[in-house]
Amino acid sequence: MGEMGKRKLDTGWLAARSTEVKLTGVELTTTHAPSGPDQPWMEAVVPGTVLATLVKNNLVPDPFYGLENESIIDIADSGREYYTFWFFTTFHCKLSGNQHVDLNFRAINYSAEVYLNGHKEVLPKGMFRRHSLDVTDIVHPDGENLLAVLVYPPDHPGRIPPEGGQGGDHEFVRNLLLLISMHYCSVQPVKIVDPHLVSSFFDSYKRVYLHVTTGLVNKSARVAECSLNVLVTTEVKGGFCLVEHLRTEHVSVPPGASVQYTFPKLSFYKPHLWWPNGMGKQSLYNVEIGVEVKGFGESDMWNHHFGFRKIESNIDSVTGGRLFKVNGQPVFIRGGNWILSDGLLRLSKKRYQTDIKFHSDMNFNMIRCWGGGLAERPEFYHYCDIYGLLVWQEFWITGDCDGRGVPISNPDGPLDHELFLLCARDTVKLLRNHPSLALWVGGNEQVPPEDINTALKDELKLHPYFQISTQSGNSQEDIFPLLDDPSQYLDGTRIYIQGSMWDGFADGKGDFSDGPYEIQYPESFFKDDFYKYGFNPEVGSVGMPVAATIRATMPPEGWQIPLFKKLSNDYVEEVPNPMWEYHKYIAYSKPGLVHDQILLYGAPTDLDDFCLKAQLVNYVQYRALLEGWTSRMWSKYTGVLIWKNQNPWTGLRGQFYDHLHDQTAGFYGCRSAAEPIHVQLNLATYFVEVVNTTSDELSNVAIEVSEWDLEGNCLYYKVFENLTIPSKRTVPIFEMDYPKSNNQTPVYFLLLKLYNIPDYGILSRNFYWLYLPGGDYKLLEPYKKKKVPLKITSEVFIDGSAHEIRMHVRNTSKKPDSNNLLYKNRFIERDSDGDFDVASLEAVNSRIEEKKEGGEANALRVTEVNGTEVGVAFFLHFSVHAWKPDHKEGEDTRILPVHYSDNYFSLAPGEEMLVNLSFEVPPGVTPRVTVRGWNIHTGHTIL
Question: What is the pTM of this model?
Answer without folding.
Answer: 0.94
